[in-house]
Design goal:
CATH architecture of the largest domain: 2-Layer Sandwich
Number of helices: 16
Largest sheet: 9 strands, mixed
Helix content: 40-55%
Amino acid sequence: MGVYIHWPFCVSKCPYCDFNSHVYGSIDQEQWIAAYIKSLEHYAELLPDKQVISIFFGGGTPSLMSGKSVAAIIDTVQRLWSVANDLEITLEANPTSVEISKFKSFKDAGVNRISIGVQAFNNDDLKFLGRGHDVSDSLRAIEIASSMFERYSFDLIYARPQQSLGAWEVELKDALKYAKGHLSLYQLSIEKGTPFYKRHNSGEFAIPDEVQGADFYHLTQDIMEDAGLPAYEVSNHAQAGQECRHNLIYWNMADYIGVGAGAHGRFMMGEDKYASKDNHIPDKWLKDVTHKLEKLSAEDRFIEDVMMGLRLRDGISIKRCEDVLDIDKLADICAQDWAQLNGDNLSLTREGLLRLNAIIPYILK
C-alpha cells in the first residue's frame, strides 16, 4: 500500500488553489507529528500485514516541515510495517530559498524523490499565480534537486491568460532542458471557491476557451512525445520507469491510507474495500485524530475503477468493470475515435482524454 501524509499549511494561499490548505501564523510541529504518529499507529492495528511501497508528503506545503519532522514520520512507517526495498518517498516542495535550504535535511530523513511546484518560467505569470518565488529560484531549486536526488519532478501550469501557443512551446522546450524523467503539466482551470473564480467571473482576466485549450493540450502532447516523455496519465509525463509510483497507486485503485486534515484513503480489509476521510479542518483533526470509514459497495468500487483508470494511458479492463459500463455507449465513443478497444482493454485517445469529464458519466450505466 501507499501512505499519504497531508500537511495542510501554506505560507500563503495561491488564488487558483482549491486544495485543503490553510495559512496559520504558527504551528507546533511536535504536536502535529505526535498526531500523525498516533494516526499511523491506528492504521497499523487495522492493516498490520500490508507492505508499504510508497510514502508521499503532500499539501499544502510539506516542505515547510522540518527535516526532523519528516524523519519521524518515515521512521514510524518503517517501524509499523514492512517496506519495499525500493520504497519511494516523495515530498512536494516550493522553490523558495527557505525551502531549498531544507533539501539536504529531507534527503537525510529518507526522502528520495522531490516534486517542485515551479508552475511557470515567467516572472510576470508567477506573480499573477500568487507564487512566492521567481524563475531564478526555480532554476536554483532544480539544480540542487538534481545534485541531491536521483529522481525529481516539477510542475508547470499552461494555458494561462494571454499566453500564446508559441510562447508555451518555447517555455516547455526550455523546461525540458531541466527535466529528469518526469514532468507534471496542468492546464489552468478556474475552480469554485477560489479567488480566481470571482476575478474570472468579474471579467478581470480570461483563459483560453475549449477550442484554444485543446490546441494547447495537443501541442503539449506533441512536444512531450517527441522528447520521450509521453503522458502516462492526463497531466503527468515520464520516461519509461520514471512514473510516480505513488500516484499510480491512486489511478490503479490500489491500497493507500491518507493521514492528516482532509486526507482520503482506499484500502482492502478482508474481502471488503473501505474509503477513509479525515476531518478537513486542521484544528479539529489535530484534536480528535479520528478517521471516518465507509465500506464501498461493489458498484462504487467499479465506478471508481472507471473514473480513475481511464485517466491512465493504459486504460481499464472492461470485464472487470462490465457491471457498470454501457456497452453500446462504449461502441459510440470508439466510433467517434475517442476511445480504443484492444481485447479486454479500453483506453481513451487524445481526443477522448480532452472529453474525459463528459465521457465517464456517459458510459456508466
